[in-house]
Amino acid sequence: MTSLSSSAATARATFLPSSCRAAPAGGSRRSRLLVARASSSSPKLPAGRRLRVAVVGGGPAGGAAAEALAKGGVETVLIERKMDNCKPCGGAIPLCMVSEFDLPLDLIDRRVTKMKMISPSNVAVDIGRTLAPHEYIGMVRREVLDDYLRTRAQKAGAEVLNGLFLRYEEPKERNGTYTVHYNHYDSSSGKVGGEKRSFEVDAIVGADGANSRVAKDMGAGDYEYAIAFQERVKIPDDKMRYYEERAEMYVGDDVSPDFYGWVFPKCDHVAVGTGTVTHKADIKKFQAATRLRAKDKIEGGKIIRVEAHPIPEHPRPKRVSGRVTLVGDAAGYVTKCSGEGIYFAAKSGRMCAEAIVAGSANGTRLVDESDLRKYLAEFDRLYWPTYKVLDILQKVFYRSNAAREAFVEMCADDYVQRMTFDSYLYKRVVPGNPIEDIKLAVNTIGSLVRATALRREMKNLTL
Amino acid sequence: MAMATSTFSPHALSLKPQLGPKPHRLHLAPFPRLHAHRRLAAAAGEAPVEAPPSPEAADPSPAASNGSAAPVAAKAKVKVEAVEAVASPKFQDSRWVNGTWDLSRFGSTGGAVDWDAVIDAEARRRKWLEDSPEASSSDDAVVFDTSIIPWWAWIKRFHLPEAEKLNGRAAMVGFFMAYFVDSLTGVGLVDQMGNFFCKTLLFVAVAGVLLVRKNEDIDNLKKLIDESTFYDKQWQSTWQDDSPSGPKK
């Protein structure tokens, strides 16, 4: 790997140099392969022709990728199926996304500063006491956020097409172009169905979500997914006041065996939902249980929309193939435990675009697989710990009702809250205070032991 | 309802059956009594004494409904599109006051709190909630925290009955390990204590006795290890197609 980094990193000073450290220390066989495919040897594009990249999907991942590509001098085409798509989604974004992506503050409908976690035995804990006055979790509407990011990509020079991606064709020769086939929707003629069109590109970024067609075409393999079910409920104003800056999370076997049920505030309504991986058939039952647990607080509300969508549980087995790669939900970047994906989608889109821009020397050279792999290596290096920690949390604390009780008890602690919010809002892992860590570990084990003991007692009970 | 509640609690003396008006929450569903009795009949495993015929259920008696019949009717009308949830009977216990256990009612004769009874009561409450989850409410918050029960009460209840067995096992395993080490190496028991390897063995023995209490525990531990590495494998598969040996990081 070192041989590659010395030759390639110097050529591409724009790309984060630390990526080379992140690259896997694979066997010698792979290093040789990578060197052979390194982009310094990849051909320069003819003068006057720039690198052309198709971004499939106009969500946060696609929007962020297209913007960064266009800014980097790459000819970018973004295909989006439905411009005003109102994707079913919690819509929570961390604070660091606002600054990293320069989002205007009016995109944010609600600023959540209080998270209420409610245990199976209805112990409620308010998380957020430790937040500074300027800190909050932003709640956005996806149709607004997606549109904003797309428009910005367009302003940066990307071409935005309204159409449905159908399939792509592999290049005929080694450095040939991919052919993208899509169904063009012309909003002006109002024709139903659209017409089949195609164009040629040098690389494809698949940002088309959980049911990704790009992933299917490239043989990326499947991932486990959770199903999330959500009802948008318009509740009376006096009840809405309670949810003005509050979100609720319900845990318990009744609500979901392996996830949580939520009430999230939206612009003028709340979203009530739940999700599960293991018991998808029972989702309606879990939703009823979530409604019941929130009962008084959403009583009398009208359901204005019901939606369900898949949430990936882990990345696809293959995230890159030739000059085709995946970002966002299509790749499977959703955290466990919290089910967060918007930030990681936008971030992976941008990182992928930056890798392409760097690898193509601002659109003047052809890229190859090793350039795309750099984005993967960098993404995994940066975020793997976050994903792993959340996976452990989910495995330990969503196991049983006893563990959930312990989880809620643990979340009452100020130190836990500060650490949680720091890592959520700023996506950085801050080393904690060792004494506090030990205290926390002891308290957590205590909580777990107590809850498990009670559980054992409960097993012997008949009511 | 009152009868059913008393069948669910064993402390017949300390439990005062709630004969007063029931909370409104019980009657938010269109047919509260029907649900309540069905649920309770199922939970108690016996037929409730005052079995409700269905006509009565459709028209809750004024004594029990406490004047909430009108909202019930109103609710039934908008039921089609409004958010509605089936109410289940609320957990009731005379010692459960304002979202916590009233410790003064758990006193045994000497005035000290009978923690065993508190643990019993909380286990019962949790079991009850597991079977019939309750709506959370910010006015009626649950403030009971299991950490107010002192550590010795937990130890006494959950560890001591097992302690004899565990200590016995640990002693036997330890003795025979010491014996074998001595017979193989000639290092005596006293010298073994100063030896790093022997200390590790001691630690393994104690941890083993604690972790593996039943045969099934071995399988459970194996499953746990598999589970904890599963996610890593899912992430690493990206890097494995051209380098089968190369780990990701």
From TrEMBL, chain A:
Entries under Gene3D superfamilies matching the protein: FAD/NAD(P)-binding domain
Key words of the record: Chlorophyll biosynthesis, NADP, Oxidoreductase, Photosynthesis
Any GO molecular function: geranylgeranyl diphosphate reductase activity
InterPro entries for the chain: BchP_ChlP_pln/prok (IPR010253), FAD-bd (IPR002938), FAD/NAD-bd_sf (IPR036188), Geranylgeranyl_Rdtase_fam (IPR011777), Geranylgeranyl_Rdtase_pln/cyn (IPR011774), Geranylgeranyl_reductase (IPR050407)
GO cellular component, one term: chloroplast thylakoid membrane
Domain of life from the UniProt record: Eukaryota
EC number per UniProt: 1.3.1.83
Domain FAD-binding: 51-84
Entry's Gene Ontology BP terms: chlorophyll biosynthetic process; photosynthesis
Pathway participation: Porphyrin-containing compound metabolism; chlorophyll biosynthesis; Cofactor biosynthesis; tocopherol biosynthesis
Reactions accelerated catalytically: phytyl diphosphate + 3 NADP(+) = geranylgeranyl diphosphate + 3 NADPH + 3 H(+)
Class of this enzyme: oxidoreductase
UniProt KW NADP keyword: yes
Free-text function comment from the UniProt entry: Catalyzes the reduction of geranylgeranyl diphosphate to phytyl diphosphate, providing phytol for both tocopherol and chlorophyll synthesis.
Family: Belongs to the geranylgeranyl reductase family. ChlP subfamily.
Name of the protein in question: Geranylgeranyl diphosphate reductase, chloroplastic
Species in which this protein is naturally found: Lolium multiflorum (Italian ryegrass)
From TrEMBL, chain B:
Membrane topology: Multi-pass membrane protein
PANTHER family per the UniProt record, alphabetical: UPF0041 BRAIN PROTEIN 44-RELATED
Keywords from the named record: Membrane, Transmembrane, Transmembrane helix
The UniProt record lists the keyword Transmembrane helix: yes
Organism, as annotated: Lolium multiflorum (Italian ryegrass)
Main location: membrane
Name of this chain's protein: Lil3 protein
Highest taxon, organism lineage: Eukaryota
GO terms under cellular component: membrane
Compartment(s): Membrane
UniProt region (Disordered), positions on chain: 1-27, 41-69
Residue stretches of biased makeup (Low complexity): 56-69
